[in-house]
Design goal:
The complex is a heterodimer of chains A (114) and B (107). Chain A is mainly β and 114 residues long. Chain A is 0% helix and 50% strand. The radius of gyration of chain A is 13 Å and the shape is globular. Chain B is mainly β and 107 residues long. The N and C termini of chain B lie far apart (36 Å). Classes of the chains: A mainly beta (114), B mainly beta (107).
Chain lengths: 114, 107
């Protein structure tokens, strides 16, 4: 069964940076298109961005609120997905999820506060 | 971006009721529409994809339908465990936008 285990959430100051990780197992990671979502406390779901498989070009797409401040990457040799974020703002606070099709990670909390 | 307008924002119904949640897309998205259920403190769970295909393991009381750019999630025979928030999401074009969500409670 597919499993996504996340790590990396933390408290950071505005303007700071952070990298989230998502370790995958139970499915063919290298052929999967992986997605990051987020959710501010008490708010709805927001699509952050995705990365295609390398065989499909490995390209990335990002939501407008984060474009230019985040980068999604993958290490297929380690079955791991990354979300690198910089110049973090208070509005970036929330729970971040990695997803593939019907499977979601457990979520990791990012708090941006001074 | 494709706007998804979901209604109602909250809903209270009795056990056994038939419940419907609606999502309207701002443009044609064919049937690229997913429905998610999210319980407090948990990751969302995919209920329906391609507008009407039930995800494996999801109870058959959940169903999805479409009419043009209008999409409906129906729960036929509400159960106490269905208390949750429900979200639609279009997967037609990035960014894959969500509806605002519907919070479902039991009367």
């Amino acid at each position: 069964e597919a499993q996504l285990v996340q790590s990396g959430g933390d408290l950071v100051r505005p303007g700071g940076s952070l990298m989230l990780s998502c370790r995958a197992s139970g499915f063919n990671f290298k052929d999967a298109w992986m997605t990051w979502m987020r959710q501010a406390s008490g708010k709805g779901l927001e699509w952050v961005g995705r990365i295609k498989s390398e065989v499909d070009g490995g390209t990335t797409d990002y939501a407008a609120p984060v474009k230019g401040r985040v980068s999604i990457s993958r290490d297929d040799s380690q079955n791991t997905l990354y979300l690198h974020m910089w110049n973090l703002q208070v509005d970036d606070t929330g729970v971040y999820y990695c997803t593939v099709k019907a499977h979601w990670g457990q979520g990791t909390l990012v708090t941006v506060s001074s | 971006d494709i706007q998804m307008t979901q209604s109602p924002s909250s809903l209270s119904a009795s056990v056994g009721d038939r419940v419907t949640v609606t999502c309207r897309a701002g443009q044609n998205i064919a049937t690229y529409l997913n429905w998610y259920q999210q319980k407090p403190g948990k990751a969302p769970k995919l209920l329906i994809y391609a507008a009407s295909t039930l995800q494996s393991g999801v109870p058959s009381r959940f169903s999805g339908s479409t009419s043009g750019t209008d999409f409906t999630l129906t729960i036929s025979g509400l159960q106490p465990e269905d208390v949750a928030s429900y979200y639609c999401q279009q997967s037609y074009r990035v960014p894959y936008t969500f509806g605002q969500g519907t919070k479902l409670e039991i009367k």
